[in-house]
Amino acid sequence: MDEKIAVIGAGGWGTTIAKILAEKNFHVKLWVFENELASNINKKRENALYLPGVELPTGIEANNSLKTVVDGADIIVSAIPSQFLRGTTKQYAGFVKNGAIIVSLTKGLEEGSYKRASQILEEELTGVKIVALSGPNHCEEVSRKIPAATVVASKDSSILENIKYIFSTDYFKVYPHSDITGVEVCGAIKNITAIAVGVCDGLGLGDNAKGSIITLGLTEMNRFGRHFGAKQNTCYGLAGVGDLVATCTSKHSRNRFVGEMLAKGKSFDDIKKEMHGMVAEGIKTCKAVYEFSQKHDINLPLTTQVYKVLYEKKELSNAIKDLIKLI
Q1: 9 among the known binding-site residues?
Q2: pLDDT class for 63, splitting at 50, 70, 90?
């Protein structure tokens, strides 16, 4: 394959995407923040920290240098958590090839600016085309070739068929989509709902309560997205309800895990230790979405109660009572 591909971020999902591409005979340069981890990936063909037990193809070249990884790449896959996205992008912006395609895997909103990943990338990079890839895609399953589907969305529809071809496999189905705003909003909001569902699981509240929470989360996803012009059918597609259900019900969901641990009385510090460096995007995103909704008078009762539990240390029992009153 002729395209030179860089993957920025060697978390579980970034590593999985690198694996998919390398197995299709692309040479993939993978930027790894931890220098020792980069060396171990090259030697042992495994990302033991973020994707243990999965053998990585020799076509993946891990490196700690952003310049080495990005320079000359035709496609750059950005797999950076939202709170680190702008800072990391600034570091490699000067090495990006004019006309490169940036494929964003980030699911979340930036604190303070409330901007989506594609907006941040547009501000920090020039002469590029941006695609958002999102869907019900747990790396623990996709990396082991368990069937999954995803969407790729962009303002520039002319590049989507090529991206679909590059990322598609017989177990990873890719669907082009025009609503990049909706795709990114859905990817952010679903993580907040997953925290609430985790609380339900941790407290043993049962399936009925969980079903109600997921339904309310879908309503808030649609309500928040509409403010930005997102299409309703995006919320009811793979990037919306598909990702929402997967994130809220899966044992692999980091955001659901956070809620479950909160329900068991665990502190943030304890939860972070148990996650071994992995990031639950819903924590920071909840703050951004709550603040934005307050400023723009968007009624999000579920997000509000999750925020109050996370940031104001509200008792879970009181949050549940207040949520029932508000809906």
Answers
A1: yes
A2: very high
